[in-house]
Design a protein that fits this description.
Bound molecules: zinc ion
Oligomer: single chain
Strand content: under 5%
Number of helices: 12
Radius of gyration: 25 Å
Strand order of the largest sheet: 1-2
Largest sheet: 2 strands, antiparallel
Number of domains: 1
Order of helices and strands: HHHHHEHEHHHHHH
Helix content: 55-70%
Structural class: mainly alpha
Shape: extended
Length: 249
């Protein structure tokens, strides 16, 4: 009989990553996107479809652009080809789109107000029509890991490994809450996350107390970097969620 129930790699990746420090989903996404970037340059920089998608995204976001720049195989020709196409497309838009003037009201004309340029139609054409190619992949990897939370939260090995982990970051906790279907699984995740956050909060309390002069001379233990861990647990690991500015102004 064929094995219809096969445990996915992502399950084992998570179980193995939980004991390491930081949010396991963030950490695995960082690993996956790094592999994607290296492979993309190696295999796909010559593919017209991918180059068109890249150009429609107006290149990548800066995080992934810098990863492209520092790609492991030192492929600068691939990066150049991708951005040549992107710039060609942007230059075409500039060539074909004259900048108009915003039409004035009679009152404005009467008052002699100076005419204003209509740069916004051109700005609209310069907006990306696709996401950053690597950010799009990050979304796919994330969904894959969240699916594992959905399927295996009540699996004993998964559950136990998660219990001993640093927990996922807050943004991933919110996503997991929205993603997991079974009420029992959601409750199990909440209980574990509660315990993980409570012990972090306790460590921070101990650290805070030890800053008091009465406690000078006491050695600082594992709680010493609890405040740094709080920064990471609230925001996620580097290069996963980024800044909170709005894109369009
Ligand atoms: Zn995370
Ligand atoms: Zn990106």
């Amino acid at each position: 009989m064929t094995n219809v129930y096969r445990t996915p790699f992502a399950y084992f990746d998570l179980v193995e990553s939980f004991p390491k420090s930081g949010c396991a989903i963030c950490n695995l996404m960082q690993r996956d996107v790094q592999q994607f970037i290296d492979n993309m340059l190696f295999e796909y920089a010559n593919e017209p479809g991918l180059r068109a998608e890249f150009s429609a995204g107006r290149g990548t976001c800066i995080e992934h652009g810098l990863m492209l720049k520092n790609n492991k195989i030192g492929n600068v020709i691939g990066v150049t080809r991708l951005y040549q196409d992107t710039l060609d497309d942007l230059l075409k838009i500039l060539n074909e789109t004259p900048v108009g003037t915003v039409e004035q009201t009679t009152f404005q004309r009467f008052r002699g107000s100076p005419p204003k340029a209509d740069g916004s139609s051109l700005a609209d054409l310069l907006e990306p029509t696709e996401g950053c190619i690597a950010c799009e992949r990050l979304n796919e990897y994330e969904t894959m890991y969240l699916d594992m939370f959905n399927r295996y939260m009540l699996d004993e090995r998964f559950h136990e490994a998660y219990r001993q982990s640093n927990g996922v970051c807050l943004p991933h906790f919110r996503r997991a809450l929205r993603h997991i279907e079974s009420p029992d699984a959601v409750r199990a995740l909440v209980r574990l996350q509660q315990a993980i956050w409570s012990s972090l909060r306790e460590e921070m309390g101990i650290f805070f107390e030890k800053q008091n002069y009465e406690h000078i001379g006491e050695t600082i233990g594992a709680e010493g970097d609890s405040w740094v861990r709080a920064i990471l647990r609230m925001a996620g690991e580097r290069s996963i969620f980024g800044l909170r500015r709005s894109q369009k102004k």
